[in-house]
């Protein structure tokens, strides 16, 4: 049995989620109306997984999450409105230790309540099996509260942008990063370890809804020395910049007038998760010699990216899989290791350093 | 109706009312932050709920309303009074939509236009009269006029002009505008224009839709609309000035609500019958036993048992359905309290604010109705004893308005109601001295009584601490009456207080009268029911094992001394002495008590009804149940009897 | 592959989905003088847009009446600017 605690101030939402899980024979459900009740249920019901609404009266979801992570560490899945504000708060929650989030139904085609049900069950089931690492979470939370470690001064930034054209390498080199569940904090850890002058552009496929990648990019841009932008249209890629593919769509590399350009393309239904890591990596292989590519696959459910990155390794590219001990879900990187596609298997704290080494050496 | 939608209708009705009340309050007092927050939350929650269904027009109107309030909150500004009317128009419209959903389960076809119109009026800050139920609105749009000019339709054709402006992001939603246009029937003319100039090829984003389609069709309007069913926001349709004879829409009339009013007595009859059905089903156990005793009756016995099981399942469902019918939201009772609070505020001259939360929580109608009286006493007490006069509050640095909050929440199968005030709190010292003065406790006890236990004294019948007998609560209606009333509903009362900060009274009640497992016990020739949940075990002990301890009796069970109570003594029916005593070991909270009875009978499941009529005033009775043979059995409230 | 690039022409066949638009754009940018041959069952708006924006010379047939009557002329009329709103 999986004990699930549903925390939401709306009776309707509790009923909606409750009904979905009542249909699953292996779930035992309890509900709570607000943060205070949730904390009580944490000690009495001892859930294995929690869904947490953000906007609640009395104690809001983030405050409640903070208490849960300290007092009863347990996988928490945020229930998020797909809005700018909802995205910001969800990203904060992920930083604070929530393992994943599910979108609130919105009555539109893609977010229709009935169609969300199987997705929600799958995500919660996966979340329930995640072991929350308190120590790491705690460290992240401290860092998150302390703000960025290397604040970037505006003047330094201006210099970089004027030297942009020189910064573009004669032979394009690109770091490709794929991530899913648990990805946002992992991206933060890797990207903020890289200095402003990092010589390779970085393109990221982080599985996410469209409303989330903008806030994610802005957030990472504040936290990292590199500048971080979302790819919403054709964008020539340059060193010193991280390109986050817009959510619910795919991000691809192409050449425009010989210039390597990232574009956001409608999601290819052949692939299940978007932005698709497989599609990004294959488009890179088509446009850049493999030895000038680094493929990094980090935490996430499923297997997206494993096949293409394994291919990349076979063609002579360098590949890295996040190690099991640091990944929230060791699905995608695990699959890559299984396919023999990982040249390095390293824990999250060391990935940034490894990228630096590789970029200098190559 | 889908139960989720049914729940939505209930919740939405409450929320629209809440939002409307808050907006009206803001109209009077534009700087009221709490009302602004409350209105925002109501609309935010409504929007979230609407998202569960396919109700896009409501969603976008609520979204716009939420934005207006959200901006005011973020900027810490007052809500522009010009926005209040359009906001109220949105809320009224939402309410109409909800009622329509309650009636016919779908939104009217005009909802999209009405919603869009309301969004416009919100943006412009003035209420707009609702559009007639067509897509054109009043004036004939210019683009359509231009189209008809460029390609005049032949007379009487009643042609339709359409303008399809695909959203720039539409490819990402899977749209293929050209394919959609190709699917429009009866196109006699079309033109394709670009939204923006084409950029240089290197800058071109092939996945950004940049074409706009305009055309004239001779097909039926409905057939054209069907093509763009999923993207009504990207299409505009206008009918030629000389239209074809219009189809007269079928008169739908007022949506009739799919609910009927039923005399509660009839409902009660059904619930009672379900209870009896349970008893009748239980009778089949005896039947199965008889069958088993017959020669070769084992198979028959098994079949009877299986039939009993099936019947049990059906009865459970029936019982749940019957229980559900009686469930009503707390809102009605809580709203009455709001009126009452205003009244009391006037009488006492103490400005008062009553905050109510959890109106949507449902419970059995008897419980919801029965709550009014105890809540009334609690609130009167709070105003009378708790909330200080205005000047005293000022000295204490509290807001002039006394604050009373009533909040309900569901905790498992129970509801918890908290009534809190921010008054002076209860002084345990004063309680002790009053209790002492009235001889309710001894001086010794008064000296050693813990603070928490002092508060318990309030529940002793006849206790009242007000020096001036107040008009409101000083007339002998104390907390004892509250406890008794809540007890009758199967609930409990707890009180907590912080001197100078206020008092909180918590009521915990069942949401419905659910099935209880009851064991029959015999005492002096009579039968009573005892709730099984309290019975840990039944033991037979020699009479001499019971020893006198101070004023009572006790015996030792597995190294544990257990006090003994004789049911006969409690009920005033002393039993004859005998060699062996039958003892029920009861676990009541943390206490363990042995209850001596003459004998035990069958165990059964029953629907416990709260005591009615004469029994209402008898303490110690949890409820009644009807036996298979029609006899009424009283089920004992052991906690009350042994307290 | 629904887009085939040879020395002189770019050929559209089968069902050309939205994801082919970038490939068509790349092929046309590479060799703007190449003819585009339409022989597809379906052409997504995204590809039509590339053709309308770059206006290569086009041969072959549009897959449906609407695109034949109202879109092809936008590509063919090289001398006239596309109507703008």
TrEMBL record, chain A:
Record has Glycosyltransferase as a keyword: no
Alphabetical GO biological process terms: chemotaxis; methylation
Response regulatory domain mapped to chain residues: 3-119
Every CheB-type methylesterase domain range: 168-357
Subcellular location, principal: cytoplasm
Coiled coil regions, renumbered to chain: none
In-chain residues carrying the UniProt-annotated modification 4-aspartylphosphate: 53
EC number: 3.1.1.61, 3.5.1.44
InterPro entries: CheB-like, CheB_C, CheY-like_superfamily, Sig_transdc_resp-reg_Me-estase, Sig_transdc_resp-reg_receiver
A UniProt-annotated Pfam family: CheB_methylest
Class in the EC hierarchy, top level: hydrolase
Keywords: Chemotaxis, Cytoplasm, Hydrolase, Methyltransferase, Phosphoprotein, Transferase
Gene Ontology CC, one term: cytoplasm
Active-site residues per Swiss-Prot or TrEMBL entry: 180, 207, 304
Gene3D superfamilies membership: 3.40.50.2300, Methylesterase CheB, C-terminal domain (3.40.50.180)
Catalytic activity as recorded in UniProt: [protein]-L-glutamate 5-O-methyl ester + H2O = L-glutamyl-[protein] + methanol + H(+); L-glutaminyl-[protein] + H2O = L-glutamyl-[protein] + NH4(+)
Compartments in which it is found: Cytoplasm
Post-translational modification: Phosphorylated by CheA. Phosphorylation of the N-terminal regulatory domain activates the methylesterase activity.
Molecular function terms, GO-annotated: methyltransferase activity; phosphorelay response regulator activity; protein-glutamate methylesterase activity; protein-glutamine glutaminase activity
Domain notes: Contains a C-terminal catalytic domain, and an N-terminal region which modulates catalytic activity.
Role description: Involved in chemotaxis. Part of a chemotaxis signal transduction system that modulates chemotaxis in response to various stimuli. Catalyzes the demethylation of specific methylglutamate residues introduced into the chemoreceptors (methyl-accepting chemotaxis proteins or MCP) by CheR. Also mediates the irreversible deamidation of specific glutamine residues to glutamic acid.
HAMAP family: CheB_chemtxs
Similarity remark: Belongs to the CheB family.
Classification via PANTHER family: PROTEIN-GLUTAMATE METHYLESTERASE/PROTEIN-GLUTAMINE GLUTAMINASE, PROTEIN-GLUTAMATE METHYLESTERASE_PROTEIN-GLUTAMINE GLUTAMINASE
Annotated protein name in UniProt: Protein-glutamate methylesterase/protein-glutamine glutaminase
Organism placement in taxonomy: Bacteria, Pseudomonadati, Pseudomonadota, Alphaproteobacteria, Hyphomicrobiales
Record gene name: cheB
Automatic annotation (TrEMBL), chain B:
UniProt entry keywords in alphabetical sequence: Kinase, Phosphoprotein, Transferase, Two-component regulatory system
Function as written in the Swiss-Prot or TrEMBL entry: Involved in the transmission of sensory signals from the chemoreceptors to the flagellar motors. CheA is autophosphorylated; it can transfer its phosphate group to either CheB or CheY.
Top-rank lineage group of the source organism: Bacteria
Domain HPt: from-to ranges: 1-104
GO cellular component: cytoplasm
Keyword check for Secreted: no
Ranges of residues in domain Histidine kinase: 309-513
Organism (species): Bosea caraganae
Enzyme category, top tier: transferase
Its EC number(s): 2.7.13.3
CDD domains (UniProt xref): HPT
Name of the protein described by the UniProt record: Chemotaxis protein CheA
From TrEMBL, chain C:
Superkingdom, taxonomy of origin: Bacteria
Protein name: Uncharacterized protein
Protein species of origin: Bosea caraganae
Phylogenetic classification of the source organism: Bacteria, Pseudomonadati, Pseudomonadota, Alphaproteobacteria, Hyphomicrobiales
